[in-house]
Amino acid sequence: MVEFGKKIWKDGKVVGFDEGGHTSLLTHTLHYGVGAFEGIRAYKRADGATCVFRLTEHVDRLFDSCKLVMIEPRVTRAQVHEGCLDVLRQNELEEGYLRPITIMGEGAMGIHAPDNPIETYVIAWKWGAYLGKEGLEKGIRCKIASYARHHINVGFAKGKLTGQYINSVVAKHEAIASGYDEAILLDVNGYVSEGSGENIFIVKKGRITTPPLSSSILAGITRDTVMTLAREDGTPLQEERITRDELYLADEVFLTGTAAEVTPVREVDGRAVGTGQVGEVTRRLQERYFDVVRGSDTSHPEWLARV
Ligand SMILES: Cc1ncc(COP(=O)(O)O)c(C=O)c1O
């Protein structure tokens, strides 16, 4: 069971979990899945300060997700930004995972319920390595899911929307039930899209490739971070569609996400990735990522929001 912070933020105020953390069975989002959320990490840095990583971008994506499904938070971006910092402070968390979520509350029970109240919350909890500490060090084993990512006119790939995660949940379940650690989903055209909660990168002969935004992927903030770091290093990088056989023949594969951070992949569908060991490009980017989020690298102060 996750250890939640005892205080949460609800529409502009910090309240106790028991006061504001329970929703009704009639909550519209519970029935139809129209809700937007974020996953954000705060790290304790080498200098002792706690900083939230790329908070502005996460809050912007929350509001973009809301726009896609036409729900309007009753709070501003600045309020959600401050709410995230406040929840960490009030729970005395030096490191933690933040989960802002905007939902449609109780009222009409039909599909069209434009007058139901829109509620925005921020919850916080402690969360270690999402795909395991060993996964970060040695790499994980992935399975290509039998489920495809949503077609661009079926869901909203650019939205982090609650209902859409059924697709991730069944794919992840299938991977675990088959003895793997994580699922990789293809798009409806058969090209590699992303993990159940991560973006994907491959490395071949020193060149990094990641699927373009049009491959039904979430525009990951960690993806953007890693692409920036790779460009700073002078590593050749392209956003191009990736086929299943390119994935099997890659020298290196890794996944990125706020929860998963930079996790190497050592096997896909029973085939070792490269030598089966974590590759040089992956290791270098993983180290740079942790230096930027938690370490002594201060080259991107614009990415850090001090608590
Ligand atoms: C489906 C999916 N793709 C990619 C990501 C990675 O996004 P980010 O790096 O912004 O956390 C996530 C996590 O939010 C996700 O759920």
Salient structural properties:
307 residues; alpha+beta; D-amino Acid Aminotransferase, Chain A, domain 1; D-amino Acid Aminotransferase, Chain A, domain 2; 2 domains; nine-stranded mixed β-sheet; eight-stranded antiparallel β-sheet; 17 strands; 28% helix
Gist of the model:
28% of the residues lie in helices and 27% in strands. With 307 residues, the chain is of the alpha+beta class. It has 2 domains: 7-125, D-amino Acid Aminotransferase, Chain A, domain 1, CATH 3.30.470.10; 133-293, D-amino Acid Aminotransferase, subunit A, domain 2 (D-amino Acid Aminotransferase, Chain A, domain 2, Alpha-Beta Barrel).
Bound molecules: pyridoxal-5'-phosphate
The overall average pLDDT, rounded, is 97
N-to-C CA distance: 26 Å
Q: From the alpha-carbon coordinates, what is the Rg to the nearest angstrom?
A: 19 Å
Overall body shape = globular
Counting helices, strands and paired strands, the structural category is alpha+beta
CATH superfamily of the largest domain: D-amino Acid Aminotransferase, subunit A, domain 2
Outline the biggest β-sheet: 9 strands, mixed
Please tally the β strands and state the result: 17
| The top level CATH class name of the largest domain | Alpha Beta
Beta-strand proportion: 25-35%
The sequence of SSEs as H and E is EEHHEEEHHEEHEHEEEEHEHEEEHE
- Total tally of structural domains: 2
Percent of residues in helices comes to 25-40%
Low-confidence stretches: none
